[in-house]
Amino acid sequence: MNVPYSSQDFRPALPDAIEAEQALLGAILISADAYWRVAGFLKPQHFHEQLHGQLYETIGTLIAEGRAATPITVKPYLPADRMVGEMTLFEYIVRLTSEAVTVSGAYDFARAIIEMWARHQLIGVAQDLDTLARNMPIDMTPEKIIASSADQLTRIAQEGNERAGATKYGVLLPNAVSKAAQASTDTAARIPWFLPEITEALGDIRRGNLIGLMSDSGGGKTSFSLQQCRHAASKGFRSAFFSIEITEEESALQAAAQQSQISLGRIDAYTLNSKEAADLETEMSKAVDLPFYIVGFGECSLSDIRIKAEAMVKSQGLDLIVIDHAKMITLPNPKDMFAERINALYRGLKALAKSLNIGIVILIQRNDDWKQRWRAGSELRPVMGDAYGGGSIKQSLDVWFSLYRPEPLYRELIPTMPPEYLSKAQKEEGKKTRKEEMIQKLEQCRGRAWVINHKRRRGEPGRSPEIAFDGEYTMFKSAGAELPPAFEGFEGF
Ligand SMILES: Nc1ncnc2c1ncn2[C@@H]1O[C@H](COP(=O)(O)OP(=O)(O)OP(=O)(O)O)[C@@H](O)[C@H]1O
């Protein structure tokens, strides 16, 4: 028996936003302000009706040239023989103008158009995915299909957020002022750091921002991040620690050691006294309700991180992700130069923070260049060029700081220093060998750390407050000291 219809014949027709397109074109023909409200993100190709996209482009060009855009001024640029149903194109735009009800609704019409465009794009991706999954080419793997679909989906999500177009100052300003006023009272918009000194130096963590935290290996990035995630979660911010280096269980034990002030070594060896065991029990019961997630990764790429982050945002929501650490992420585009691949990684992370509207902190390993600089007589403290990926990563970061702990560096260097002998007279004068000077500095910087601010998109970098590091619990705390003035305090270490 012949089946007269396939199930596809019953699929509903695709939706469109024709009315929103007409209302927007009418609004723009009444007032150029309506155009400037949407020109930053709405492009001609977003229109479902091709003719509307062409009209939007023509009208936009006139306005951008500083000319009035009315049906009369637009008419010379319209094809005279083009008909819309029974009407000439000119009659059609006269009607759009006369039926336009509101100029202030332009932004909402444009959002409706973009949303419809995005839905059509999603249907396209879904159809491609369906075809690829059914007939997988030999050079494909499910992971590659997922990664390429994730790229397309992120591009679709970002498209409507593009603000690259020129928007008139007078139009932007009222929005910017009301947003700033709203954000100042909206405590949910900014995620606090776990120590006031850090907030003083860097400002709060803002949504959509990518923050770089650099330190030497063993400098305390992981410890700092676990403390930060635990703290943010205790304030109600949903925080995730993406651990590529240590296991989820190791991360959980370290966070518990910090919180309960139990020696990490004793937790690891499980030689706890009764008070420590009770404190750990208390932390376990508190932890149940904390929105603090630890996600273990093996080797992973930016796509893996994006897929996980997007899934988490959709399922339980997220405010903050800390990724430990950049060097462990497989770089994209193997055929490109290293510098381009690194920049693609940081750009991708920035785009992810923006599209998911969350704060992302990326931990960055410092390279060993400081050793050569030190041999040549320089200080040990970090500079931007020490970052894995070099100083150019700065452009993708909204905030960039180093967690500088000189103590382990001195410990590493002192045994490598050649012996030096002083004469009796020199000793009597109080002269010290370079090694003795280093040992003295080591004593002076025990348990001390500095937050060195390299970049802050909002506000001047410069303030580099001192904090304290307690190695027993691998935790940072307030140094209790007055904040030092810019670039003082760690001079000489
Ligand atoms: N399980 C542990 N037991 C004892 N000490 C630890 C433990 N984990 C970390 N530490 C110590 O805490 C300090 C900070 O380590 P942390 O792992 O936070 O640094 P990091 O910057 O993340 O290092 P890396 O980049 O090498 O992972 C180091 O001195 C380290 O030896």
TrEMBL record:
User: What GO terms in the biological process aspect are recorded for it?
Assistant: DNA replication, synthesis of primer
The family database entries (Pfam families) matched by this protein are listed as: DnaB, DnaB_C
Q: What class of enzyme is it?
A: isomerase
Q: Which GO terms describe its cellular component?
A: cytosol; primosome complex
Entry EC no(s): 5.6.2.3
- Keyword Isomerase assigned: yes
- Name a GO molecular-function annotation: ATP binding
Q: Which UniProt keyword terms apply here?
A: ATP-binding, DNA replication, DNA-binding, Helicase, Hydrolase, Isomerase, Nucleotide-binding, Primosome
Does this entry carry the keyword ATP-binding?
A: yes
Q: Which SUPFAM superfamilies match?
A: N-terminal domain of DnaB helicase, P-loop containing nucleoside triphosphate hydrolases
Catalyses: ATP + H2O = ADP + phosphate + H(+)
Q: Which PANTHER family match?
A: REPLICATIVE DNA HELICASE (PTHR30153:SF2), REPLICATIVE DNA HELICASE DNAB (PTHR30153)
**Protein name stated in the entry:** DNA 5'-3' helicase
